[in-house]
Amino acid sequence: MPEQLAQWFCTELDDVHSTLLALPAELADVPWRDSGWTRKQIVGHLLDSATNNRQRFVRAASEGAYAGPRYAQDAWVAAHGYAEQPWATLLGWWEAEHELLIAIVDRIPSERLEASCAVGDDAPVKLRFLIEDYVVHQRWHLRQLTAGTEAA
Asked: Model-level pTM?
């Protein structure tokens, strides 16, 4: 079962990566909607999500449970200055972060997929749910990134 989850996770992220690479670079600085983040900022948010979830995945897998904070997404995006980064750099960082996550998920023992994970004040969920929800989150933002493009 962990192999199926790991393979699904890898396949899903490979698909997200392919779609990101197909996005026209000239849209990188364009907000996906009025008063919304630019596509650079959305990719930056996905980087922050990867960083935060890497901690969650590793701690739950190695310690048997995770309890930690949410993160202030607007503050993180601003602190990293993603809007000023080159598009190609952001895509490279996305790829590197997700290679790490894929490797981590691939190594999680099946019994640790049931580890309890509490993020902020939310009710605890299983590590398996966090992994699956991570892909849902990527796909949610992928719809924003591709809004109004041929890649949609």
From this structure: 0.93
Going by C-alpha positions, the residue among 47, 33, 119 that lies closest to residue 79 is 47
- Structure confidence by residue, pLDDT tens digits, 44-93: 999 999 999 999 999 999 999 999 999 999 999 999 999 999 999 999 99
Residue 69 in 3-state DSSP? coil
Residue 152 is assigned to a structural domain of this protein? no
Dihedral of CA 99/100/102/106: which sign? positive
Instruction: Kindly state whether residue 74 falls inside one of the protein's structural domains.
Output: yes
Q: At what angle do helices 39-63 and 87-106 cross, to 10 degrees?
A: 20
Residue 35: which region, alpha, beta or left (left: phi > 0; alpha: psi -120 to 50)? left
